[in-house]
Amino acid sequence: MTERVEGVNQPERSSCDLEAKNLTYHPSGAKEPILSDVSYTFARGHMTALLGPNGSGKTTMLRHFLSQIRSPEGAVLIDGRDTRDFSPKERSRRIAWVPQNSSGDSAFEVEDVVLMARYPFKGMWDGDSDEDRKIAEEAMKTVGVYQFRKRDFSSLSGGERQRVLIARALAQTTPWILLDEPTSNLDIKHQIQTLQMLKEGVDAGKMSAIVVMHDFNMVEKYCDRAIILREGKVVAKGSVSEVLVPEIMREVYEVEFDVVEKGGRRLFVPRSGIT
User: What is the pTM of this model?
Assistant: First the structure.
């Protein structure tokens, strides 16, 4: 009988940082590199916003951590090890991924989609254990999609599918969750619920998160660190208060912002017109 992979009941909470070291990516046929000499350490215990205009290399950077794009030797590290040295299962026990777009043509029920997250913890012939089902159920309830569990994934709206994929990432019980514009298809209520849930998980030490975002007010409220890319280069990095300043935002986005203090928080209001 095949043994289940050790650690199925508990996520790996090692001292796992994600690091890019002078990462450059210039695909064949492209006039310019998509990423140019990018160096940054995403430290555990933080919710980090990955910012920048469309086409600045944000998603490409995350895909290198997932080895969806092959990186140069030593350029992308997980807990000090080259990401290329991990097997797909090993990497999936450390990093969960929520893509920006979800296909709606899956023939699986929602519950089965979420249970797919438990694959990295199984042997080849293992089915879903009671513990797997318990983890999946808790994830669906946390995100608020448990009532959809017997529906076909393809029957859901775009926002509902996005929430199912977030539940799947939670059920993967990894130290890291990488999310590419996770709130882009959500209404304001579910945007707030999703980001609050992630922040609470980070604050409780259950996970660390990298979130591609465009809403600076949400970044200010829920994230503690940020990095901005422009044309594949790092423009600013550090705490949110250090990165989200009008001068940097004007340089990167070519839009003027007013910053208003209210209730101990900064609010970012774009001015009409482009610089």
Answer: 0.90
